[in-house]
């Protein structure tokens, strides 16, 4: 280092050697050595080498340059240290963030759904993970996610289902169907919500249910046993009436109760029950029917309908067509 000091004092040190000197001067004991070397070098110089006063000026300039370089180096070194500290800090943060992200990734298991479906002409019965029982009418399906019974008891219904819900005061059982949600804790009720139907009907057999709207947060309505809530999709009107619940729930036992329903609704139910396509003349759609079906074949049901109303049917390929029977109308008018 003494050689570099001499080179530096004589103005011959390269940039690399100057950097070596600056780093070396970081330590206090090295700066003492440097000053001592500088005094030795000064004495060794020919007093006539420089004009009087020039030597001191040269040393002063050198000291000033050295101090500035040292300060710049200290500053740059601090900046480098800060950069290194910041890098370590952000690296730790990124590790922490990564660990947090990874740990939360582990916790946030993606939702997947289980779907149960009853095809047309069939009635299905399913036991949910919380022990609740669900009967699915023909052409209906339900879906629930993998968190069911752990952090929720939410079911999506498309069609008609009868629910016998296991009681759980901590975890509400919620059936979502269109704009209506049915919230319960433990009870038996029926929900009919076929997409093609004009209404969503809820019939409460026992216990208590709360009706909510997915669109209007302030909406809520409570039903008592024996009540039927009929939500009209077209105008969002809710009608509540007292009913004989067995007429709306006996389908799960294989019985189909048709009570004062227009032909258009009767054929929708028969279509699902017997998996048969129907068509009808427009003037027949408001003909009302009342009868009960248990295990009768479809042709017997159609014969009964032809006896109690002025209608006749015809098989056209795979479709049964209902038409107005003019002959019966003339007989009735006599």
UniProtKB/TrEMBL annotation:
InterPro entries on file: FecR, FecR_C, Ferrdict_sens_TM
Sorted alphabetically, the keyword list is: Membrane, Transmembrane, Transmembrane helix
Q: Per its record, what are the GO molecular function terms? A: sigma factor antagonist activity
Top-level taxon in the UniProt lineage: Bacteria
Which residue intervals define the domain FecR protein in the entry? 115-210
Start and end of every Protein FecR C-terminal domain?
257-321
Q: Which residues cross the membrane?
A: 82-102
Protein's name in the database: DUF4974 domain-containing protein
